């Protein structure tokens, strides 16, 4: 009986010079930084490993996509202007066990941003409110969401200057565009309110522009019942409060102050 001839093993055909050059040109047009050396190496790996077309394409593009994502995240973190961008995993949960860890870790998943819902942290100074909300903001950046962090005082200063040079509408649009705006230290210093008679109106402009369109995180050490007194305008305070808390996640923090009991630790607000 005549033996059957052996079938040659399948190989992935190398790109012809003309096709190779065209592929490199297409990558350049698409602004995908794949070099000729990277393409040749990927083709050789595909041939040696017998990769499918999809596996070959994934191997070729995965590294470039990863690098581009890393650069975007770096830009988002810089743009956010955090005062301390620390991962949530480094927070000391044991110092104040009453802090709702599960709830805060759930917020770090970013679903509230996709749902365009607000978050309000309420509690006395020194509990770590600023630290926690900035960690949530950092987690949002890692999910490639644009975040902007500011304090209530800095926000008022910026908006007051914008009123003076008639660019207030541009600044409101600026603050309205971020998927997550973090406003820290609301009510932290009553001097900021006394120095700006239009404070309540300016805060309202920002919150109203973002209401049900974007997520706002507000960090405060004054209870909701004290907003009218703090703002000096009860009807406007009610309108502002309605827009902030409508559908919002309210996190009330209690415990002992890091500043008083842990002087060796960085200040926590």
TrEMBL record:
Keywords, sorted A to Z: ATP-binding, Nucleotide-binding
CDD domains listed in its UniProt record: AAA
Domain IstB-like ATP-binding, first and last residues per copy: 27-261
Listed GO MF terms: ATP binding
SUPFAM superfamilies: P-loop containing nucleoside triphosphate hydrolases
InterPro entries xref list: DNAC/IstB-like, IstB, IstB_ATP-bd, P-loop_NTPase
Keyword Nucleotide-binding: yes
GO BP of this protein: DNA replication
Name this protein carries in UniProt: Transposase/IS protein
